[in-house]
Amino acid sequence: MSDxxxxxxxxxxxxxxxxxxxxxxIYFSSQLQSAPLPIVDKGPVELLEEFVFQVPKERGxxxxxxxxxxxxxxxxxxxNYFQEQTKDSVRQIIFSSLFSPxxxxxxxxxxxxxxxxxxxxxxxCRIPVLECAASWLQRTPVVYCVRxxxxxxxxxxxxxPGSVQTLKQILSASPRFCCQFIxxxxxxxxxxxxxxxxxxxxxxxxxxxxxxxxxxILITFLNTPIAANLPIGFLELTPLxxxxxxxxxxPLAYKRKKKPSLSNGHVTPKVPKDSGGxxxxxxxxxxxxxxxxxxxxxxxxxxxxxxNLYGRLGLILFDHMVPLVEEINRLADELNPLNASQEIxxxxxxxxxxxxxxxxxxxxxxxxxxxRTLCSRLPHNNLLQLVISxxxxxxxxxxxxxxxxxHIHTPPLGYGAVPAxxxxxxxxxxxxxxxxxxxxxxxxxxxx
Length: 448
Prior knowledge:
Layout: H1 2-9, H2 13-34, H3 42-51, H4 68-84, H5 88-99, H6 107-124, H7 127-139, H8 142-159, H9 164-168, H10 175-188, H11 200-212, H12 219-222, H13 240-258, E1 261-263, E2 266-268, H14 280-306, H15 318-335, H16 341-361, H17 368-375, H18 382-389
Antiparallel strand pairs: 1-2
Helix pairs in contact: 2-3, 2-4, 2-5, 4-6, 5-7, 6-7, 6-8, 7-10, 8-10, 11-14, 13-14, 13-15, 13-16, 14-16, 16-18
Pfam family, one: INTS15
InterPro entries: INTS15
Protein name: Integrator complex subunit 15 isoform X1
């Protein structure tokens, strides 16, 4: 690597960046012939940091800076490299070497360039770059994933009106990237403050993606070898938890955004960045999203069983439901039930539906006692009380320990004029295993 470095030092910045990609391509192609997963050692990473990210190797040396035109040319060089490299394994290891965080001073430059590269790949539809970015999101700590998500949202949902249509069109090009992007933005926009409510353009795009094909949000889960114990601090296998958070918290978060604030004892209007309160468009979007999430949850059991993970792996972690319930309780207290009774009722109805379907499908593993304890401090809600009471008792699923929710194929108790009973529905099918059709019959009514 030292000989390569000396030759690169004699070149201009752009030529050196292109040359280092060429040398590392040869290096890793050779490595991959002898080992399926070669270890990326310190040498290649240091070359990339010095000649791509312009971080000087010598201490105290001033970092070089590319001007805007040079940076654009560098991005074009990188885009073309990933497009022209035909071996996915080589592309993936070069991308990982370039953009895996190292915990050093080069990480800011690394993340800045990554955001611009993926943004360019979206604009010019460079599928290999999007596929590499999807893998990167899957194996990178969530704190870095949300930075990439924010860069893309800023570029396509905030800076230029109407540019979201460009981002929207990549669904057919790289569904895998879209799935990981949804997971990232739901981690970023957790509705914990007014600034963390998803922009309307972003919400509309994600709802259109998922409503068109609800199984989009299962792509990573369906195409990834999975262990029962998932690493902590990384994106979840699916965006289900984040999407449930959006649907459940939205009525209360938008009501909080509309709520007037007190200043010196006087009520002053709170001026939000967007229109305050839940307008009709947003309300319909969250209703459609909630329906799509419930549809996906209904087929999760089939896929968990196929992977021999039913009863062993919860796609929605109970530990992640705890802070959600606490946030709902806090928001309900903050908003005053007298002024937000409809929003509280809608939020709790959606929570009850999501919990019921998630437990029935095996996506959420918990006992009824866990559920009672979790929801004990929430305001009273009839549907939630019915869910806590439990479904019609059937024979327990062999894969689940005693006390866990059995799998059921009937609508939840109290979801119609009379309780559902197996005898009343002799032809009721099991969860479908085929591709979703958006107009499929669905036994759960969306909350209006």
